[in-house]
Amino acid sequence: MRAGGERAARAGGVGAGVLLVVSGALLVAASWVRWADVCGWGEGGSAACLKRQDHRYDIVVPGAPWEPVGAAAELAGVSLLVLAAALVLLPWALTGRRPGLATAVALAGGVLGAAAVGLAALRSGLTGEVVDPVGGGIAGAAWLLLPPAVTVRLAIGARGRRVAAAVLLVLAAPLVAAFSYAVGPYDARPWWEAVSGLLLVGAGLCLVTVPRPGAVAVTPQAQAEPEIRPATP
């Protein structure tokens, strides 16, 4: 990667990283509101916890019939809106350059899908009633499918901690969660949103801590070895 690309990747990485950390923290907070009063971490067998696992209490994509739990839906909605903003910067964060046409179109679809689902969750929480995303099922499909696909595509041109960030971002995707850590004994596994949130925070920290362009790592051995100068006559 050239120096200009490295600088773009650094700037994009810091911006996207900060947004991912904020998005992840909000999602962890939303998960806390949903589960903390009835399900301890790693617990899921009590009657109250089993009841809360019903999709009736979902906070990311509420569906009728629905019962809000505190401000969980609002926090999840804002988390998705912040995530949509982070996705805009993802090409520069991972590769340091503008995406190609196909990648840009797919990324735009993913950003719009995430924003539509996030806004619907936020409005649902504020009104106490289910609000469908603008675009309906198309927006939901774009949110589920496009961000992880674009992330994998961009990761091909990434390296170092940017690759780790891409892996964590894919693991945090709702598509992956829906087939793994979000599947519970009833409907939804307790604290699954917190797992996604922590993965987003990890992805953000990987991007924020990418070394600056031109930075040279100094090993302990190099620090210990004295500089050898030629003898002067």
Automatic annotation (TrEMBL):
Listed transmembrane segments: 12-33, 75-94, 101-122, 134-156, 163-184, 190-210
Keywords from the UniProt entry: Membrane, Transmembrane, Transmembrane helix
**Highest taxon of the lineage:** Bacteria
Which protein, by its recorded name, is this? DUF998 domain-containing protein
Which organism's genome codes for this protein? Nocardioides cremeus
Lineage of the species this protein comes from? Bacteria, Bacillati, Actinomycetota, Actinomycetes, Propionibacteriales
